[in-house]
């Protein structure tokens, strides 16, 4: 029972060496966990869960030996940039909408005031009482 994980770990380390040397035999040669799993003939989830330390080691070796950012990290960084841009755009839009609400509220108040001042008293129904500011 302890033989299989040891054998898997050995295959994973050998696969790491082949991928980093650019000598892939079973995978497409990309420096990803999926390619490492194919190259080592190990299920990808086994690599992610049982051998997480080897996955981290692989990513570290990709950074140092190949001087590349791992594919997953690169995609995450791109997503972060896009999300920051989206948040910035939304903040700008919210600010513009708040300013528009203020301007529309003021315009509505001005129009209401103008309408009440220009409406002749004869057109106002008898049952309507106009609000007037109290005089002090």
Describe this structure in words.
The structure is a single chain. The chain is mainly alpha-helical and 136 residues long. The protein has 2 domains: 3-68; 72-113. Helix content is 70%, strand content 0%. The longest helix has 48 residues, at 71-118. The radius of gyration is 34 Å and the shape is rod-shaped. Keywords: Coiled coil. Residues 73-114 form a coiled coil.
Low-confidence stretches: none
Strand content: under 5%
Helix and strand content put the structural class at mainly alpha
User: Span between N and C termini?
Assistant: 96 Å
Q: How many separate domains?
A: 2
Radius of gyration: 34 Å
Largest sheet: none
Which short descriptors sum up this protein?
136 residues, mainly alpha, 2 domains
Outline of this structure?
The protein is mostly helical and 136 residues long. The protein has helices spanning 3-21, 33-40, 44-49, 52-65, 71-118.
Topology summary:
Blueprint: H1 3-21, H2 33-40, H3 44-49, H4 52-65, H5 71-118
Helix pairs in contact: 1-2, 1-4
């Amino acid at each position: 029972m302890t033989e299989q994980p040891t054998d898997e770990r050995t295959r994973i380390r050998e696969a790491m060496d082949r991928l980093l040397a650019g000598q892939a035999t079973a995978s497409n040669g990309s420096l990803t966990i999926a390619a490492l799993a194919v190259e080592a003939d190990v299920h990808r989830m086994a690599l992610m869960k049982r051998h997480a330390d080897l996955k981290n080691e692989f990513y570290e070796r990709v950074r140092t030996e190949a001087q590349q950012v791992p594919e997953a990290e690169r995609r995450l960084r791109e997503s972060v940039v896009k999300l920051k841009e989206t948040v910035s755009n939304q903040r700008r839009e919210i600010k513009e909408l708040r300013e528009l609400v203020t301007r529309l509220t003021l315009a509505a108040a001005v129009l209401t005031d103008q309408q009440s001042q220009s409406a002749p008293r004869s057109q106002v129904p008898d049952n309507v009482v106009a609000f007037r500011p109290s005089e002090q």
